Amino acid sequence: MVAASVQFGQHAPARRTILHLSDTHLLADNAPLVGTYDTAANLDATLRRVERLGTQPDALVFTGDLTDLGEPEAYRALRDAVEPVAEALDAPIIWVAGNHDERGPMRKHLLDREPTEEPVVSVHDIGGLRIVALDSSVPGWHHGELDAAQLAWLAEVLAEPAPLGTLLAMHHPPLPCHLPVFDILELRDQPALGEVIADTDVRGILAGHLHYSTSGTFAGVPVSVAAATCYTMDISRPAVEVNGMDAGQSFHLTHVYADTITHSVVPVVEAPSGDFFSQEWVDHMASLTPEARLEAFSRKR
Ligand SMILES: [Fe+2]
Ligand SMILES: [Fe+2]
């Protein structure tokens, strides 16, 4: 495992590294999603990319639509695929419920909990970074909502700040969307969430649902939406014509620094890349004085 980060510049290495993945949409017997997409193969390709990162993430966060129909077998297939990867990385998995999930089967077959219909929420201490998984799903519907009880629970959790601050992980992003389809399926009553997180230690919101990578701010808090592992929305078309495509899958590397958080898109593609940089090159740079390093790598020749 290569050292996750070295410091040649002014920023100290990230305090925590999170892998943010979304929308796996697995189906029982690996039935093709909408008759087209091989969701298991696409998840497998994503996980192989995760393994090749060569970094040691502190957690893997999956922001919902874990299965397409909430089938028990699909949840079991998901954990069979992801758990060995997470175990090898020694990183916990944080599962978030989406509108395509079903709370009962998700609890029973993914989380080994009682199969109740309560919102699937959880709080994780990732070495001082708090990650709160919210459940914006509404049983029987595809739009999103956080009811008064869940918001009251969140307010209680946030009453005490965490040493490295808090990330919220939820399926429906509290952001506008330029696509009509997601306007209908948006998170409702977003101001209510804004009131709860105002003046708290929430430093970021991780979300999914849109099947393309995007970002914005909500109530002053950065929101990062990861694309899907199953298929993505081809947004290089007029908004009313946007449809899915079996390309452009990606996930995010989220680096939590002392004073900022970055979200970097990792494309899931097979393509040749150069071989100029290596551990040996980094070791060589590290052996130089700052002035010699600048001379060796920054000066135009
Ligand atoms: Fe989805
Ligand atoms: Fe969704």
From TrEMBL:
InterPro entries named in the record: Calcineurin-like_PHP (IPR004843), CNP_phosphodiesterase-III (IPR050884), GpdQ/CpdA-like (IPR026575), Metallo-depent_PP-like (IPR029052)
Keywords from the named record: Hydrolase, Iron, Metal-binding
Cited CDD domains: MPP_GpdQ (cd07402)
Domain of life: Bacteria
Entry keyword Iron: yes
Ranges where the Calcineurin-like phosphoesterase domain occurs: 17-212
Sequence similarity: Belongs to the cyclic nucleotide phosphodiesterase class-III family.
Name used for this protein in its record: Phosphodiesterase
Source organism (scientific name): Microbacterium aquimaris
